[in-house]
Write a structure and sequence with these properties.
It contains 14 helices and 11 strands. By secondary structure, the protein is α+β, with helices and mostly antiparallel strands. Strands 1, 2, 3, 4, 5, 6, 7, 8, 9, 10 and 11 form an 11-stranded mixed sheet that branches. Helix 3 runs antiparallel to helix 6. The longest helix has 25 residues. The termini are far apart.
């Protein structure tokens, strides 16, 4: 009887302890408070596809429609992906195979697609074949690239321009499914019209003329869309202005840096100054050696002070390829951590994963260092910047 009582008490203690332990384990090291949030739609999952640009761009378009028409839509990313593959294939052939034919792109490409071909709801066209639950485009990409080589090889003695668009469409039908015939994509887009002329890309580079547009030399800018150049601090101020006025911001950036944590849902540029780190929390770092502190700056087990990123650091990172546009996401808000450090709340396209359910918190310093460019509605710019850029 005594043993039975002990067993019961032990079991009861475990019932209480397990949830408490789970709560302790689930508590993130970084604690964020959202300050400004622009209206936006739900997190999606690009899965095994290299089409982050389209998921970020579609989220951007959905947010624009939500703001302008007060209508929440769930649009088909794969409708825009189809359009992009068709346009890229034509470009590849026209350029005699001297340009890339990757699955990458930029946020603004979705607006080009919308203005040219219209848009479709996700319910009408998911781009998933029967039995599929997630996107997987590796074979599709290989098929497109392999056929492009066949076409440009001119085995019949000439480019069969009358035939290849049909074959490309058949490949897309095979991997993404056929488009619904009864859905009026162009009519739907007119109902919630967004004009491509109302949107711009902007950034800050020290080797470009201020307040002038230029073509940013990156592989995924296949449309050769111009980017406006401005001062480094002005760039960040325009992002803040957009968010505070209810506009989301398309963001082309680099997430290959060690400061971007997939597990923690946080992105930072930690300082490597041991003294600064020690001073930030003397009690915690008192017994740690310098080597131990430096080894742990990317562990995300402690809130680490950051470097102050300058325009020169940003330019160098671009020049030496330590930053590029390997990913696109959507900035939806401004936040701060428990120490008051400024962060941007970012909607990713990897599903509702991580401690923040598919959102990441990227520090202001990380955004400064790893930004390639931003995409916004021109209406989101300050009047002073519109005047400087000579845009209406």
């Amino acid at each position: 009887m005594k043993n039975l009582k002990s067993i019961i008490l032990l079991a009861f203690a475990m019932v209480i302890a397990v949830p408490m332990l789970a709560q302790k384990e689930e508590k993130a090291v970084y604690q964020f408070t959202d300050e400004t949030i622009a209206p936006h739609t739900i997190v999606q999952n690009q899965a095994q596809s290299g089409t982050c640009w389209c998921f970020a761009g579609t989220g951007f378009v959905e947010a624009e429609i939500l703001k302008k028409y007060n209508k929440t839509l769930n649009l088909s990313e794969m409708f825009f992906v189809r359009w992009a593959y068709q346009q890229k294939f034509k470009r590849f052939v026209s350029m005699h195979g001297t340009v890339g034919l990757s699955c990458g792109g930029e946020v603004i490409d979705v607006l080009y697609a919308l203005n040219d071909a219209g848009m479709i709801t996700e319910e009408s066209y998911s781009g998933l074949l029967p039995g599929e639950e997630k996107h997987c485009h590796w074979e599709l990409q290989n098929a497109i690239e392999s056929y492009a080589k066949v076409v440009t090889k001119k085995s019949n003695g000439r480019i069969l321009y009358e035939i290849y668009p049909q074959v490309v469409e058949s490949i897309l039908d095979g991997y993404l499914g056929k488009l619904p015939q009864r859905f009026d994509a162009k009519g739907f887009a007119k109902k919630y019209k967004l004009n491509i002329e109302d949107y711009i890309q902007f950034s800050s580079f020290t080797d470009k003329k201020l307040y002038k547009p230029f073509i940013l030399e990156i592989p995924d800018n296949w449309t050769n869309t111009m980017t406006y150049n401005m001062q480094f601090d002005e760039m960040m101020a325009e992002v803040d202005n957009a968010l505070k006025n209810g506009y989301t911001v398309g963001w082309a950036q680099d997430v290959s840096d060690k400061g971007f944590s997939r597990k923690a849902g946080v992105a930072i540029v930690p300082t490597d100054d041991v003294n600064v780190i020690r001073d930030s929390d003397p009690k915690k770092f008192k017994k740690m050696t310098d080597e131990e502190i430096l080894e742990g700056i990317y562990s995300f087990e402690n809130v680490i002070p950051e470097k102050e990123v300058t325009a020169e650091m940003h330019q160098t990172a671009y020049n030496d390829w330590s930053t590029g546009d390997d990913h696109s996401m959507l900035i939806v808000g401004i936040a701060h951590d428990q120490n008051g450090t400024k962060y941007y709340k970012v909607k990713n396209s990897w599903g509702e994963t991580g401690p923040y359910n598919g959102f990441w918190y990227c520090s202001e310093q990380f955004v400064k260092l790893h930004t390639v460019f931003f995409t916004v509605n021109k209406a989101a710019l300050t009047e002073g910047m519109k005047n400087k850029l000579s845009i209406k």
